Amino acid sequence: MSDMNIRDSRILIVDDEKSICDIIGQYLRKLGYSVSIAMSAEEAMESIRAQSVELVLTDIKMPGMSGVDLLKWVKEFNHFLPVIITTGFPTLDTAIEALKLGAFDYLTKPFHLEEIGEKIRRALLSRQLEEENLLFSKLVSLHEVTKILSSTHRIGELNTRFLDYSVKISRADFGALMFYDNAYRLFIAETIPLPAAENFWSARVFVAGSQWAAKNEEPLTLEAGITTLPPDLMPLPPEIQSYIVFPLKTPQRTLGVLNLVRMRGNISFSNVDMELINVLCSQASISIENARLYHNIRDNYLKTIRGFALAVEAKDRYTHGHSENVMKFTVVLARHLGLSAQEIEQIKYAGLLHDIGKIGVSEAILNKPGRLTPEEFEEIKSHPEIGARIISDVPFLKSLVPIVKHHHEFFNGQGYPDGIAGDAIPLGARILSVADAFEAMTSNRPYRQAMPQDVAMEILSQQKGKQFQPDLIDLFLDIISKGKLTE
Ligand SMILES: [Fe+2]
């Protein structure tokens, strides 16, 4: 870091004696600084609000607001703006008080101009370092967070990661994520640490704080011992040192809030903590909104597809409810096989969509009461491939393509469309074919009435090792016998 960067910094000199302002001003201009002058603390505040100021050099004793009051105001307004106090009546107490309140340094009158120059230079360099450090951590955090948060679309996982990360980087003792529900009430979605945390966060002080931050769309900080608060807010209970709440908002709306707490014995959250959490919250809000959007699109898509499946069934008037039933049976079978939640979900949708290709088969053939000609049967046989083609264009459903395509393969290789056998048939398709056959046999078809359940079971049994995988049939028949198929 060089002095070059601080050379054109703007310094605000605050003193009710004009001659002092002029002398110091002239000297600092010679050193290359820009200089503004204020003859009172009130004027200084106006100046700081109106233009960018990099350092404040203020007298303590002035008519009206004192230099100490100005210092307090500056630290609230911009924690990083350095303030150097000058005083004509040096007492250790005022100096210590000023330093405690966050003054960078102090000078006693009469002072040497070189001393002023040196202290200003040190203050500016220190501020620059502080800002660069902050920026650096921000960038690191931003990079990491973006990477972590954008790597999942699962809402629950995203919430956990976000809260975990917030608690870690802010060194908080407790954290809670709250979101708006459909009725615009905040509910607790996630807490750290987990046990008994719901009770902790249900305390009125946090509920009120969360509502305040969400409603006002700005962060809220509550500190131990502070009792004068805006209406609706409550002072912290004695066991808590520091409490911050950040709204989670996107350009369109507020999603909820992030709550962080440090308990008594810990120090309060710093401005750097606040900055970091702020950046984190903006990033997380976008990721959360994206994940929700993704889920909405997915839900809507599945609704559309379900409608599509129903449309196919409407075309084929004998198969009403077939897909929904097949879906249920495949899920039961998959569950009993001990498949993962993800695999079960996949098979479930495949069950719903397996015959979607019938949309491409003529209605006359689908509803023909008599025997099909070989040509007609060929057309029927095209439905798994048509279905596979339809869903292969949909990103969410791509993984179902092999199941849909092969749901009419036989375990012995005598099925269609590819005539593959055994393990070469995707497991989902082997499961689906059992459920499909059973559902078809036990419901009315154009060419025959529904079979009694025991007859259908007998046929399944006879087809072990031919149409179906033997142990899948054993399991399925066992499920039916125990009355667990429709539970
Ligand atoms: Fe089919």
End-to-end separation in angstroms reads 72 Å
The averaged pLDDT comes out at: 86
Major β-sheet annotation: 5 strands, parallel
Relative helix content: 40-55%
Could you spell the SSE succession in H and E letters?
EHEHEHEHEHHEEHHEEEHHHHHHHHHH
The unique ligands bound to this protein are: fe (ii) ion
How would you describe the shape? elongated
Poorly predicted regions are none
CA gyration radius, whole angstroms = 36 Å
Structural class: alpha/beta
| Number of continuous helical runs | 18
Subunit arrangement of the protein: single chain
Strand arrangement in the largest pleated sheet = 2-1-3-4-5
What proportion strand?
5-15%
* DSSP strand tally: 10
Task: Provide key terms for this protein.
487 residues; alpha/beta; five-stranded parallel β-sheet; five-stranded antiparallel β-sheet; 18 helices; 13% strand; elongated; binds fe (ii) ion
Summarize this structure briefly:
The chain is of the alpha/beta class and 487 residues long.
Structure description:
This protein is of the alpha/beta class and 487 residues long. The protein has 18 helices and ten strands. The strands form two sheets. It has a five-stranded parallel β-sheet with strand order 2-1-3-4-5, with helices on both faces. It is elongated, with a radius of gyration of 36 Å. Fe (ii) ion (FE2) binds next to loops.
